[in-house]
Amino acid sequence: MLPQQDEPDYIRLFIAIFMAALLFMGWQRFVEWPRRQEMAQQVIQQEQEKRAEQRKEAATLPGAATNESNPSLTRAQRIALSPRIAIVSKTLRGSIALTGARFDDLILADYKETLAPHSPDVTLLSPAGGNDAYFTQIGWVSADGKTAVPGQRTLWQADRNTLSPGHAVTLRWDNGQGVTFILAVSLDDEYMFSVAQRVLNHSGHGISVIPYGYINRAYTETGKPSAIIHEGPLGVMQGSLEEVSYKDLREKGNRSYDDASGWLGITDKYWLSALIPAEGHYKTSFRYYSENGADRYQADYLDGAQRINNGQSAGYDVRFFAGAKELGVLDAYAKGDGAHPPIPLFERAIDFGWLYLLSEPMLKTLSFFFIHAGNFGVAILLLTIVVRLLLFPLANKSFHSMAQMRALTPEMQKIKARYADDQITLQKEMLSLYKREKVNPASGCLPMLIQMPVFFALYKVLYVSIEMRHAPFFGWIKDLSATDPSNIFTGFGLVPWDTPPWMHLGILPIAYCLTMIVQMKFQPTPADATQAKVMKFMPYFLLFVFARMPAGLVLYWTCSNTLSIIQQRVITVRHKDKMARKTARQMPDAR
């Protein structure tokens, strides 16, 4: 008989587990938790020191705004704090503050905030002191530490009350030491200000000043930054476009370029403010700091010191763009004219992405169609037809390959059933079938891959095009840049029900889904059962994806799918006729 084994001692096991758990919790409470608290406190202290350093650095910048926040004042009240020069043109209206000579009141006359009948025009620049502060200042800093220079509190004298195209304004300020500072400001017919800076020295001795300019913005970034377009500081530094996100400035610190040449500014999806200093090399910085609980961002430049002897003068020219990112306008500035030199890569302020070589001509073509058709939706349809015609040979080859594969599906299923347990023989038989029928299973994929950059470029064009903003189509589509407003869950407006976002399905996305379903009927069934199920589910997945996309994009894809269906249908019918004739030739003569 085998000796009886002792029963497990569960009580001691439970006690051991309990003691181990107690020891672990004690370690966490009295050792690990204080350590983590100390580390967290160090991180907070480091962040506070970093913010303080950034704020200190920003405060020492020439003319940078500090201690100006007063959220209790409205925009109109802040504007009224300073005497002003009115800005009047067909595209802009607003004013320049004579206190500080700031560009801090600018409204885009051609663009509305919303589609509402009495919607206000888009406000681009606003005075300091509020959460919407967004302004530009151009001036000088003293290089010798002795010369009094104009600052943010300086009250300038103007020779005119209104700035308009063809009617420039000259601002003057005397520092009381025999030095006169002059800003001659002019405006063109679009969105470009030209500022000629002049310094007249009659102080009795030489002076040294440094020209500077900056764009300062109070901005609170809400939600996750867009992965499609860049919004935030950007500029051309030594021939290449540099983009710095708001998030990077907050988390990684300021960005400086000691030998820059080009332009700098801050961009939104549709709007841009940019400084274009005189040709040469200067120091540029993109900065972040926090002031009175508000996030502030700044793009600035600082040129070299200018020595001005007694009785002499010196000048510095800078341009300031503030307006809509219209491709035709930006492209004209990029090319330059007789009066002004070209602005390198200025059209790249529109975020075409890495496919800009395709995106830019597409947008120009779309703008051409829009000008002549008068309807942006019609322009999208015309552009879709042009793209499909250009890609016709590639698409034709791809669809022809799909038709061949679809015709071989029954034979392929027989081979799979016959050699289901012998994968090596199965592969050999499949290859023999492809060789016998002269079909390349990969030939349908390559043309599609080649077309993908075109589709991505066109997607980007439709997404960033300002012409599509608030552009109507027909019927219920009042804004092609917004989602389709119709909703099947409300009976297309008959049922007064405020549905959640995921329950919004408009007519255009549904039409797109139907075209996807029809288009997939012309494609060969995937060999893998799981893959086949995924492909069947794909149109319904894309239905909810496209339901949240701009109507203009959905319109393009629906039209593109419709043209593809027609092309696939023609190729499929021709292929069936060809196969039928081939079969008839192979049949023995009944006679």
Entry summary:
This protein is an alpha+beta fold and 591 residues long. The chain has helices at 10-59, 75-79, 246-252, 327-335, 356-373, 376-390, 392-407, 409-418, 423-437, 445-464, 507-520, 529-546, 551-586, and strands at 84-88, 92-97, 102-112, 121-125, 134-142, 157-158, 162-163, 169-174, 179-187, 192-201, 207-218, 232-237, 240-243, 255-260, 262-267, 271-277, 282-291, 294-302, 306-308, 313-324.
Could you tell me the radius of gyration in angstroms?
Answer: 33 Å
Rounded mean pLDDT is: 83
Beta-strand percentage range: 15-25%
Give the proportion of residues in helices. Answer: 25-40%
| Number of helical segments with 4 or more residues | 13
Q: N-to-C terminal Cα separation, in Å? A: 94 Å
The CATH architecture assignment of the largest domain turns out to be Distorted Sandwich
Q: Would you give the CATH topology of the largest domain? A: Beta-galactosidase, Chain A, domain 5
Secondary-structure-derived class: alpha+beta
Query: What form results from the Cα inertia axes?
Result: globular
Number of domains: 2
What does this structure look like?
With 591 residues, the chain is of the alpha+beta class. The protein has 2 domains: 75-221 and 230-349, Beta-galactosidase, Chain A, domain 5 (Distorted Sandwich), CATH 2.70.98.90; 359-585, no CATH class. 39% of the residues lie in helices and 24% in strands. It contains 13 helices and 20 strands. Strands 1, 2, 3, 4, 5, 7, 11, 14, 17, 18 and 19 form an 11-stranded mixed β-sheet that branches. The protein has a 9-stranded antiparallel β-sheet with strand order 6-8-9-10-20-16-15-12-13, with no helix packed on it. A hairpin with a 2-residue loop joins strand 17 (282-291) and strand 18 (294-302). Helix 5 packs across helix 10 and helix 11 (507-520) packs parallel to helix 13. The radius of gyration is 33 Å and the shape is globular. It starts with 9 loop residues before the first helix and ends in a 5-residue tail after the last helix. The relative contact order is 0.07. Mean pLDDT is 83; it is low at 1-8 and 54-60.
